[in-house]
Design a protein that fits this description.
It is built from one helix and 34 strands. The chain has about 425 residues and is mainly β. It folds into four domains: about 140 residues, Immunoglobulins (Immunoglobulin-like); about 100 residues, Immunoglobulins (Immunoglobulin-like), CATH 2.60.40.10; about 100 residues, Immunoglobulins (Immunoglobulin-like); about 70 residues, Sandwich (Immunoglobulin-like), CATH 2.60.40.10. Strands 2-9-8-4-6 form a five-stranded mixed β-sheet, covered by helices on one side. The protein is elongated, with a radius of gyration of 33 Å.
Length: about 425
């Protein structure tokens, strides 16, 4: 079923009220249930056709006896359940994490549900689902899913998420709404209009209260974008990954050359295993690292970070490291400036009698077509050509012009100049 057309603001308000009504209705029933799910409604927002989005739901046994989940059934062909091995036996107070995936095949809003059958006092537990298929994202998130990995209880980890408008028209972001009590989100003042190509950064924090995997999401009202969140609380002692210096600034580096700086990674509290690294810009790279590698507690390891600018101007990027540390994803900011060394060719010749001035001609081959490069008649016997580029060879010839405007033949042979 497709929702009626409306302005972005009224659409966001309507969706919020529907979700709230569903939550209140289902929560009113939860008090008498032995088997519960949290959240009770999964909202996927807008997902491009042909892509998928996965959110987590927690099944919990709130009774004093064991509960056996014997079957599950999803309605709506675009929704599917994963991570549920049946029969599932939940001891009193025990929980299990189940994934639900939305894979739209057509445009428009759609709804579905998952029915969990068990021997609990509520033999059929209903999880409501809704999402919207779209032909393209109004807004993109990097990363599209925030995975915090293992985070020790009593600590927290924060990840930045960059929201970018890749459309030609502006996109209005009204608010950010998180689900999952262990997640919180902070960002710029809203509402705001993102112009074409403009970005904002929001920060999501995971603070686990109990051991085990938790799921949640950030709902961006306006473009109806959902960012799935996952994290695992652990009682084990996790190491902390440190990186120095941070950030790294390479300063000015000539285009076509490579400059390196040393990056040092350290582990505190416990050993840390770094499993992957990713560069956001191909002009920055990590050298000498063989992944995965482990840093023992209290020690450090150093690598070179290389900057090879391909064009002039300021260039920014980052290296993202994923590890089993409490701060499982660490970003190292990188900046540098590509520079181009200016070149020129200085020409001089002997003066000729009875001339008003000279013309200078240039070609890229000795026997090719020569083009005059001085805009007006040059009365001097020297000329500097500053329009040359690196790696090219140029050939020059000159002529003299008398007061009557008569021009001599070009000088022979041509003078060659190779630009390094």
């Amino acid at each position: 079923m497709r929702l009626p057309q409306s302005s972005p603001q009224s659409f966001s308000t309507r969706v919020f009220l529907i979700i709230t009504a569903a939550m209140l209705s289902l929560c009113a029933q939860a008090g008498a249930q032995q088997l519960t799910c949290s959240p009770m409604t999964l909202t996927f927002g807008q997902v491009p056709i042909g892509q998928m989005e996965r959110l987590l739901v927690v099944l919990s046994n709130s009774s004093q006896t064991s509960v056996t989940v014997s079957a599950s059934k999803s309605t709506g062909t675009e929704f599917s359940v994963s991570g549920l091995s049946l029969p599932l036996i939940l001891s009193p107070g025990e929980s299990a994490v189940v994934g639900v995936t939305f894979s739209p095949t057509t445009s428009g809003w759609t709804a579905g549900k998952v029915l969990f059958n068990s021997n609990a006092s509520n033999p059929t537990l209903q999880l409501r689902l809704q999402g919207t298929g779209t032909t393209s994202d109004a807004l993109t998130a990097v990363p599209s899913t925030a995975s915090f990995g293992n985070i020790a209880l009593g600590t927290s980890s924060t990840l930045p998420i960059v929201l970018t408008n890749n459309h030609r028209s502006s996109v209005k972001v009204f608010a950010l709404q998180e689900t999952g009590s262990e997640f919180s989100v902070n960002g710029p003042s809203l509402p705001t209009n993102l112009q074409a190509g403009q970005s904002i950064t929001v920060k999501v924090t995971f603070t686990p209260q109990t051991a085990g995997t938790s799921g949640g999401s950030v709902f961006v009202t306006g473009p109806a974008l959902v960012i799935p969140l996952t994290g695992t609380g652990t009682v084990t002692t996790l190491g902390q990954l440190g990186i120095t210096p941070s950030p790294i600034n390479f300063g000015n580096v000539p285009v076509g050359t490579t400059q390196t700086q040393t990056l040092t990674m350290s582990a505190t509290g416990a050993s840390v295993t770094v499993s992957s690294d990713a560069s956001s810009n191909s002009q920055f790279s990590l050298e000498g690292a063989s992944l995965p590698f482990t840093i023992p507690a209290g020690q450090n390891i150093s690598f070179n970070v290389a900057f090879a600018p391909k064009a002039s101007g300021t260039i920014s990027g980052s290296l993202a490291f994923t590890s089993n540390a409490s701060n499982s994803q660490v970003l190292e900011s990188l900046t540098g400036a590509g520079t181009v060394t200016p070149h020129s060719v200085d020409l001089s010749w002997n003066a000729a009698p009875n001339v008003a001035g000279y013309n200078i001609y240039r070609s890229i081959t000795a026997s090719g077509t020569y083009t005059r490069i001085n805009s007006t008649l040059d009365p001097n016997t020297a000329y500097s050509d500053s329009t040359v580029v690196s790696g090219q060879t140029y050939y020059y010839e000159a002529t003299s012009v008398n007061s009557a405007g008569q021009e001599s033949t070009r000088s022979e042979p041509p003078v060659a100049a190779s630009i390094p």
